[in-house]
Design brief:
52% of the residues lie in helices and 14% in strands. The chain has two domains: 67 residues; 240 residues, no CATH class.
Length: 321
């Protein structure tokens, strides 16, 4: 495959990743920070995109360079490892969230976009707009990583930077803009969170007052989810589907599909993730997540009795704290 062919394939992939009303040259001018004539020379294939430019485009638009170059095989795939580093956890968390937002921004205006998540713990999109809960998830991760050496021993000692809170809210907002979202819940999803809170309360790292505030937020979150499940859509009209699984999951798995972009994600080590845009991995990942619906009950818009029973059970777990 020659340079000109690769350049043309990249241009086609860029076109496919943009909404119908987007102007290709203007998008590339903004992404690459180069002049209009320089962009036109690349679009005419008079000058090929450099590797650095292709990388920036790939990151900004969620395009797989492996797929374009046809180097991706069934045996080899590139994964991004989003692991929070102990020495500067907030900064690495911030960068990982920024990278994730790039992909969701790509899907934001795509009417064919779909997002599937099979969760054995509470998904990010549910708790990030709750101050105490989002703080607890960060606190728990830091405590697990650093233990007694942790500078912020108590929950109350952790101060989440404003830029992290703003980014979390941006994430919640942008996930609501996906045309179709489907969540498959492990029946133990909320119980896992309750057990974690109970543990930190028992070792006196969370006060009774803080525990009660966290309980209130969990109950509020369940109320919001119940209302959302009954309606089956966000306030902006974007569709949402909820399933409750009859089997348990080993981890939390997600995929995001939009135009030529495919993202597969596995959540691990509490708030960390690994992800890939490899199309072959995506097909396996998507098929496995889709297969979980066979063992699950739809509780959004239908399955009212199952929905009420499931959420009633989750509230009973919370009230036992």
């Amino acid at each position: 495959m020659n340079t000109k062919t690769l350049n043309c394939d990249l241009i086609e992939a860029i076109k496919g990743s943009l909404p119908a009303n987007a102007h290709l040259s203007n998008v590339l001018i903004d992404i690459l920070d180069i002049g209009k004539e320089a962009v036109y020379r690349r679009l005419r294939s008079e000058v090929p995109f450099t590797f650095a430019e292709a990388s920036v485009i790939s990151k900004s638009l969620g395009i797989s360079l492996d797929h374009i170059s046809s180097v991706s095989t069934d045996k080899v795939a590139m994964f991004d490892l989003h692991i929070m580093k102990n020495e500067d956890p907030f900064e690495t968390y911030y960068r990982a969230m920024k990278d994730l937002l790039h992909y969701y921004a790509t899907a934001k205006d795509d009417p064919s976009a779909e997002w599937y998540t099979a969760s054995n713990i509470v998904p990010h999109a549910f708790y990030m707009d709750h101050d105490y809960l989002s703080k607890f998830l960060l606190y728990k991760w830091m405590y697990q990583q650093q233990g007694s050496a942790m500078n912020m021993k108590y929950y109350r000692d952790l101060e989440v930077p404003d830029k992290i809170r703003r980014l979390q809210m941006d994430y919640v907002d942008i996930t609501k803009s996906i045309a179709s979202s489907t969540f498959i819940w492990d029946e133990m999803m909320f119980l896992s969170l309750i057990n974690e809170l109970r543990y930190f309360s028992h070792i006196n790292l969370i006060t009774d007052k803080e525990k009660n505030l966290l309980k209130e937020e969990i109950l509020m979150m369940i109320d919001i989810l119940e209302d959302l499940a009954a309606k089956g859509e966000h306030e902006n009209g974007k569709k949402v589907y909820f399933y409750v699984s009859s089997i348990n999951f080993e981890a939390t798995y997600s995929y995001l599909q939009a135009n030529v972009m495919r993202l597969s994600t596995i959540r691990l080590y509490s708030i960390n993730t690994i992800s890939t845009t490899d199309w072959n991995v995506f097909e396996y990942h998507k098929n496995w997540i889709q297969s979980l619906k066979k063992y699950s009950t739809l509780i959004s818009m239908s399955g009212e009795m199952q929905r009420v029973q499931f959420l009633k059970k989750q509230r009973s777990y919370v009230n036992e704290l």
